[in-house]
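The record is passed on directly below:
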Amino acid sequence: METIRPATRRNATGPLRRLLWAGEAPRPAPRRRFWVYAAPLGVLPLIGLGIAAGANLIDNRVLPAIVIWIIAAGSVLPVALCVRWPVLAWRLSFLMLFLGVINVGPKEPWPWNTVQILGFLVVLSRLAVTQGSAVTVWATIGSLVPVFLFAKSANAGGAAVLLVAIAALGNILYRRRHTRELVAEQEELTELERAKRAVLEERARIAREMHDVVAHHMSMIAVRAETAPYRVTDLPESAREELAGIAQAARDALADMRRLLGVLRAEDGEAPTAPQPGLADLDQLVATAHTAGVDVTLTADGLGAVPETVGLAAYRIMQEALANAARHAPGGSVTIDARGLSDRLELEVRNRHTGPETPGGGHGLIGMRERAALLGGKLTAGPDGFDFVVRATLPFDRAMSEGAEPE
């Protein structure tokens, strides 16, 4: 956006440098379909006008043929250039205002041929429509110099008024278009802010519901499990250990939930920097499953070079698979096979159920597939004979190049 700031020499001469010698980025090519046909057809009239300008110069001036045709070409070439390079076209037209007056004939009312005058007006109007006000002002001032220098006896004042009027009209059109672009940009930013605010409000609502409902129940589970040995007398030692394990698991779940709530409530989108679990914590995960009564056998190989992002996703997938095995197929054994290869991690979790399967309708499998998809991998889950198998392939390339974090 344009801002008002104190005038400095650099601010004053910057537009002049852009006009005279700074590099110019080409304007975007017109995208409308009729330009595909209009552009070639527009070249033909320019060639015809150039030939007409050359014929007029031959009739009125005594010049070498090469000079005549240079002036004729310089009268129409800037018109073709101004579509995408308006500043470059003005520079060439301005130079031709000095070359076009060589050996002016006595019968010529103006020191320039008619084609050159009309072409220069087109170039100046194009520059005024596409460039800032300061550049247009400098171009107009520069254009008046040859007018008063070479056309003193040919109504230079009227020509100067015409040039100023064309530049002013073009600048008005430029300002209107620029204002519309600023308004559209501001509306887009407003919509983005509204969408961001809506996302933050929804995340805050989810975090609030999780805190008020899930966290409350988890806290009650932990409290009841910790206080049960004091409220219920004559509990065997095995029951006390089981209750202590339940209490610890509930506390760990509460810690994970607090970390998740922190992510949901973070307005800047930055996740907490607390360490996340990974493949180094597999032994603890297996021990926790053993404590919960799940018979788990872990086989791991080549996990040292697995990226942290892939390790986190694999840990969460195994964690959910073990939870599903304990929930839906209690009493069955579980085998975990994790193998790190040169470019991927292959993971298989197989559980055999010995009793009736407990149906489930949660989102665990959906979440596992989403974690694998975030890394560009794939995950399948389904029955395999008497077993239920979860297989995942997690590639390393996206994790190392993007540094994406599933959580």
Observations:
- The radius of gyration is 39 Å.
